[in-house]
Design the sequence.
């Protein structure tokens, strides 16, 4: 099969609930979004439960589903995708962790966490991470890579490692570093290595020049590595290989970049002004997407701002971001190639009243040749609820797009 | 997580089909139900297939699904839930049966059923049942408990019992008691015990004072116990334990009480005027629900009358019951606690034209903070079919309510 081009346009955290100050409308229903409204009018609309009705999807589980991977089969925890997101070469069988560079003090022979984020350290973490690379502990290769600020990822590679282990991170300041434990032999092996990594990080970091400099400047030293969220890296069949096309991802944040990279999509590098925030450079995201569409059959685009506003509980900011997004769409839409199929949807709802992801379904627009436009004329949760696509699940999206764009094989005769 | 209160309000057998005498409207669409209509207007509506589209759900399988237990995994037959419903302590691995106290006569050395319901015996069944308790047959403990009228439950407890056995009950008068059989060793063991229970019941009951008295009064003796509907008692994880809250059930009939008890809900005792019929004491049901909501996070309420009218094929009675229910809601609604989330729906359709459960979907209202009200303004099968919640399955209901009320954990990051 050889089909047409597909764009999956994710407005992260898009869905919301009625807000009294907005006359019991959602931010999307309230915002002036003439370009999205025109798309809703020209397209077919519906609601999507990213996982299933009521289930509060993470961005990771949702994106897996939207790419056609059942998260109940492929999602083994956040660690592997975080590690892939910072550019580590994570392989099936690896055990991966999210980590913080943190500040600890010795008290009664124990390491007690003083500052889980080491004053949100901005510089020098690459030097600290480099202390580990190539190191083997108990025959296990240890890989550490810094991410933004105090964040890092840890990958353990070796035979017979388990991932059902506790966190070293106590998750609160003032508490001692936790001794990692596991039940099975494989988990115990992992736990023993992680405990040695934590101890070794303290020995390597405490007098490291990076920290001597920090202390000299009155800042908390990043003198320990605190792993959490262990996950056994899953085997995920290549997304482009599975469908026989070239696929790219234009996404703002590391976790989703990690999902995309892990699934084999080409992850497009973006300028620093694309920062995953409310003031992100939308024009740069759209420009990168235009470019990617010239060389790829499938492009995943994720814009993060609405989710940030949802987490902040800031309805006005969510509304303003959606209006700014709609403004920026003007030039983007004008330059889109003909024959393109587009899906516009959220990866989950992040209602401002909740301040976190909720299990409410997200609105969807399907656009392009062959779709059956319905009576919906504006983009919003309620208008899309009566759309022709009905209520779908995240795993339904990719087959629908592959069908419309002509990539789908017939099932049967 | 610690969320808000939830009420699941089941109108048993609610759904129906268009009735010519009602101008091709259903009883619910025809009935004057201003309070339910107001709820439909304020809430989000939809249709629910209790199991899946077209599947004719029982009250037991439907309630399991609505409580979040996939009946394909947890439903092993009616016996265990009937037994739990009459207050027996059913344990995983037990084999449980529904039974009738019946009347048999000896003919040519066989027991032939004369009256499957022993003149719907009302008194003395506890004395008959007591003849069995503590008894062991082939090393298997035999427990019998009377239910209403001629009904009873039988529980077998012991090692290596199977439940794939035939019924002893021939299901028609004038036919001989059936010798119970099974295929596997475990099933054969159960069958042998049940056959001995049946034979023993005749020996113990035939000259029992209860029956001597009945015969003296011209009534058929309850001189045998006829088991049917064998089920291996499943292991069901505790409903309150699973979600971390307190849960209660205010329900009228034994089977649903059994489901609730089996799932670990507190089953509220109700006055005798709550009789599961068309003339049940609705005010008492609502009062008990109000009380339960003061001490429990989750309350399941089931009102049975509409189902009774459906089984009776009586459209006028179904309509009248729904109108009486709506009247009684006036005071109930006024006294509901703030912040409550409510789901109003049927557990299945019982169309009067069918006189039994059908596989037609049931209408749903979701009410409470955060729901997205839709354009539906009356409660009915057709109005709800265009509602914002779309078409859901029974298993979707609990996750949706847990999400709205703030009890749901995030899946992913």
Sequence:
């Amino acid at each position: 099969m050889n089909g047409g081009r597909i764009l999956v346009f994710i407005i992260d955290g898009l869905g919301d609930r009625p807000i009294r100050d907005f006359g019991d409308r959602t931010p999307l229903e309230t915002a002036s979004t003439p370009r999205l409204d025109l798309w809703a009018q020209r397209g077919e609309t519906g609601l999507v439960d990213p996982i299933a009705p009521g289930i509060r999807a993470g961005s990771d589980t949702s994106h897996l589903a939207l790419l056609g991977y059942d998260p109940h089969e492929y999602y083994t925890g956040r660690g592997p995708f975080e590690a892939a997101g910072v550019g580590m070469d994570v392989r099936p069988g690896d055990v991966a962790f999210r980590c913080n560079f943190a500040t600890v003090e010795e008290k009664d022979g124990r390491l007690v966490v003083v500052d889980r984020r080491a004053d949100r350290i901005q510089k020098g973490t690459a030097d600290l991470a480099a202390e580990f690379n190539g190191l083997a502990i108990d025959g296990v290769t240890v890989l550490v890579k810094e991410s933004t600020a105090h964040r890092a990822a840890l990958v353990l590679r070796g035979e017979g490692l388990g991932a059902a282990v506790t966190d070293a991170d106590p998750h609160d300041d003032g508490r001692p570093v936790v001794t990692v434990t596991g039940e099975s032999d494989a988990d115990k092996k992992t736990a023993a290595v992680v405990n040695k990594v934590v101890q070794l990080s303290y020995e390597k970091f405490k007098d490291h020049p990076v920290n001597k400099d920090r202390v000299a400047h009155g800042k908390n030293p990043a003198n320990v590595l605190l792993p959490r969220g262990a996950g056994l890296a899953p085997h995920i069949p290549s997304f482009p290989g599975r469908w026989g096309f070239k696929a790219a991802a234009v996404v703002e944040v590391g976790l989703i970049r990690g999902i995309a990279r892990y699934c084999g999509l080409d992850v497009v590098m973006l300028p620093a002004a694309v920062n995953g925030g409310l003031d992100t450079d939308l024009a740069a995201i759209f420009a990168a997407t235009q470019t990617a569409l010239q060389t790829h059959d499938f492009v995943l685009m994720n814009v993060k701002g609405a989710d940030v506003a949802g987490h902040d509980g800031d309805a006005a900011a969510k509304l303003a971001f959606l209006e700014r997004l709609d403004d920026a769409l003007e030039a983007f839409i004008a330059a889109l190639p003909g024959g393109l199929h587009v899906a516009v949807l959220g990866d989950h709802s992040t209602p401002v009243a909740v301040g976190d992801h909720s299990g409410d379904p997200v609105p969807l627009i399907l656009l392009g040749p062959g779709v059956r436009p319905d009576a919906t004329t504006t983009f919003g949760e309620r208008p899309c609820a009566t759309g022709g696509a009905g209520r779908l699940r995240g795993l339904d999206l990719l087959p629908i797009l592959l069908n419309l764009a002509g990539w789908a094989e017939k099932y049967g005769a």
Observations:
- The first helix of chain A runs from residue 27 to 30.
